[in-house]
Specification:
about 35% strand; eight-stranded antiparallel beta barrel; mainly beta; about 350 residues; two-stranded antiparallel ribbon; globular
Length: about 350
């Protein structure tokens, strides 16, 4: 671990980290690659009609913390790897809305915050027979996915800082790759910088271990089901195709969680989560902060992977499940984690 992390990971400044964190898990204002834009409804929500994110006060309390407390029990190191097998790559889709997370038109939930990135405002929800059915626009979250081969993953992280702060002692070394049917190799590397402080929900210093995320937790997009997170991180990395950097810097979010796919690889509702299995999610979203005007602007990822409609896939949402996982508190020995099936 010491050799891998010998180059100390620098952290985003508080203001930059605040802006970057919103991007961690999202569907975008315009996912391009054949996806429709959110249009006027999106801009209305972005302009202030949508209520503020629920963690605003909590995050404000952590803005300027220069000496954050450590994780209880001391820093934890987690190593995750995959050496064989393929990966599942998500395609743009219309996410079905789970009533356990989003409620009903009479009693809606999870609508506050930046649309799609955090909550889903009412004007972006389809309704039928008195129930929400699906999001009105395409996103990286849904039931559509394809399999790519030769998946490889090496991840080594330390969770030292407990909560959001202006600085963090968390560390990440991450590299993942996979191949399409034509033999092209795609790769994501991270992290030159970590998001030490969140914007609409916490980043826990950049690395988070052992807690609920997504869904009803309101930590991350509600379009993913509520799930137990064993380890996650948010940071800035780079995108490669056939060994060449094609896009950098890009926000990268990774998490090792309970299994949240069902028959046909559909994205689960909360009641369909499988607690006895795990898989790892890699997300590189198609948005970047608007440094001149504030907020966020569409910025499709240069993935280099072409969709059947002739347009480029504008994000990476990749899932690995042939995993080997080890974790330890740095003062103690290694404890092996059951391998995913």
């Amino acid at each position: 671990m010491k050799d891998k992390l010998s180059n100390k990971v620098s952290n985003l400044s508080p203001n930059a980290a605040l802006r970057m964190m919103t991007l961690s898990i999202l569907a975008s204002a315009s996912l391009l690659a054949g996806c429709t834009t959110l249009g006027g409804a999106h801009h209305a929500a972005m302009s202030g009609d949508s209520p503020p994110a629920p963690y605003a006060g909590y995050l404000a309390a952590h803005d300027n913390v220069q000496h954050p407390l450590q994780l209880l029990g001391g820093p934890m190191e987690v190593q995750v790897s995959q050496d064989v097998g393929g990966v599942h790559v998500s395609l743009p889709d219309f996410r079905r809305l789970d009533p356990d997370v989003f409620g009903t038109p009479a009693h809606p939930r999870a609508f506050a915050g930046t649309p799609i990135i955090d909550g889903v405002p009412m004007m972006l929800r389809k309704v039928k027979d008195g129930q929400f059915t699906r999001v009105a626009h395409l996103s990286p979250f849904g039931d559509k996915a394809i399999v790519m081969g030769n998946g490889h993953l090496q991840m080594d992280v330390v969770d030292a800082t407990a909560a959001d702060a202006a600085v963090s002692q968390d560390k990440v070394h991450f590299k993942a790759s996979w191949q399409d049917k034509k033999g092209n190799t795609y790769e994501v590397r991270c992290c030159k910088k970590l998001a030490a402080h969140g914007m609409e929900y916490p980043s826990f210093g950049g690395v988070a271990t052992n807690g609920l995320m997504h869904g009803s937790s309101r930590v991350g997009t509600a379009l993913m089901p509520t799930l137990y997170n064993y380890v996650a991180f948010w940071g800035m990395g780079e995108i490669l195709k056939n060994g060449q950097v094609v896009d950098a810097p890009r926000l990268v979010h990774v998490m090792l969680t309970e299994y949240v796919r069902t028959k046909g690889y559909a994205l689960a509702f909360d009641s369909q989560v499988t607690p006895q299995r795990v898989h790892l999610h890699l997300m590189v979203p198609p948005m970047m902060p608007n440094m001149q005007h504030g907020g966020f602007k569409p910025s499709p990822v240069k993935t280099g992977f072409m969709l059947p409609n002739g347009k480029q896939l504008p994000f990476w949402h990749v899932m690995f499940q042939n995993l080997s996982v080890r974790a330890r508190h740095l003062e103690n020995g290694w404890v092996s984690f059951p391998q995913s099936q």
